[in-house]
Amino acid sequence: MPAQRPYRDVLLGAYQDMVQRENELRSLFEAATGEPLPVNNPAPLVGPGSEQVWLILEVLKGRGVSKKDFAPLLNDFLNSEHFRRMPINRMSTLMFAGIAYAAANHQKTPPDQGTSNDIDLVSAHLP
Question: Quick one: pLDDT at residue 1?
Answer without folding.
Answer: 45
